[in-house]
Amino acid sequence: MTKTLYLPAPAKLNRLLHITRRREDGYHELQTLFQLVDISDTIGLTPRDDHRIVLNEGIDDVAHEHNLVVRAARLLQNTHLLHNAMETPRGVTLSIEKRLPMGGGLGGGSSNAATVLLGLNHLWQLNLSVDRLAALGLQLGADVPVFVKGHSAWAEGVGEKLTSVTLDTPWFVILHPGVSVSTAAVFQDPELTRNTPPITMARALQGGAPTWRNDCEAVVKKRYPPIAAALDWLNCFAPSQLTGTGACVFAAFETQEAAKQIARNASQHWPTWVAKGLNRSPLHDALGG
Ligand SMILES: C[C@](O)(CO)[C@H](O)COP(=O)(O)OP(=O)(O)OC[C@H]1O[C@@H](n2ccc(N)nc2=O)[C@H](O)[C@@H]1O
Ligand SMILES: Nc1ncnc2c1ncn2[C@@H]1O[C@H](COP(=O)(O)OP(=O)(O)OP(=O)(O)O)[C@@H](O)[C@H]1O
């Protein structure tokens, strides 16, 4: 019987997010500190004898063809075909066990895609380098490369120019304020701070957590009062921030016990997670890379 490989797709937090410039193409250049955390979706990959890419358990509301796991598998299959025209590309049956909220700023979809790229590179024995896979991943989304590289990182560009960093690893309380944020609308908002002067990585790291902030926060709070309310609530216990363009907000605690205590109260109002900060991705641990 063909065995299924189950691999984690961890979440990320943006512990600092500066927007430094709007580009000609409308996209924005960022400086961000990505930290991986230990809450994950699980992706199942079962190799097939034919060339089909099948998604068994998907996600309601996302058509299979649009699902980032299917798009990642197709991208890899097409890349392989292009360079190995004589070889029949292999297929895979995929499944997703979703725990990360969608569109929450935790990068779940991007992480799912990265797990498929690395998992299939392993199963199909393609031997593509991590750098090559990260470049392919960028075609699927700006947050895919950091998950492919598998380490907390300082990022520039739209998030693809990565330098691995080692961050502190506190326990985080993460809340989902229950609204869905349009990333495009936040980036188009005339009031968005989009001219923060670039800083060096060394300076960002030297300043540490008390100096880290997210340039999207003011606009997001104004547009989405439930996010402002969640930030105000969490700020009563520890300095709190938005991840990405939201909707999730988070705060760091020194111990698991302290985080759990706040999470117990928070969970009366919002979906809540306690997550440990990581530097290395559990996906890379699982693949032994
Ligand atoms: C802000 C972050 O969460 C930081 O981790 C991510 O860069 C967002 O990445 P994402 O959710 O994959 O966003 P995308 O789906 O690529 O972008 C949605 C829309 O937001 C705007 N956008 C996004 C990223 C970026 N660096 N500049 C932008 O202006 C663009 O209008 C884009 O059409
Ligand atoms: N496998 C997938 N998992 C989650 N979302 C997916 C997936 N495939 C496609 N999508 C689509 O991608 C959108 C963004 O998902 P994702 O969970 O990555 O957002 P996010 O956490 O806000 O990420 P980011 O921090 O990169 O903005 C979803 O709203 C959904 O429509």
TrEMBL record:
Keywords: ATP-binding, Isoprene biosynthesis, Kinase, Nucleotide-binding, Transferase. Pathway: Isoprenoid biosynthesis; isopentenyl diphosphate biosynthesis via DXP pathway; isopentenyl diphosphate from 1-deoxy-D-xylulose 5-phosphate: step 3/6. Pfam families: GHMP_kinases_C (PF08544), GHMP_kinases_N (PF00288). GO terms for molecular function: 4-(cytidine 5'-diphospho)-2-C-methyl-D-erythritol kinase activity. It comes from the Bacteria. Catalyzes the phosphorylation of the position 2 hydroxy group of 4-diphosphocytidyl-2C-methyl-D-erythritol. NCBIfam families: ispE. This is 4-diphosphocytidyl-2-C-methyl-D-erythritol kinase. It comes from Vreelandella vilamensis.
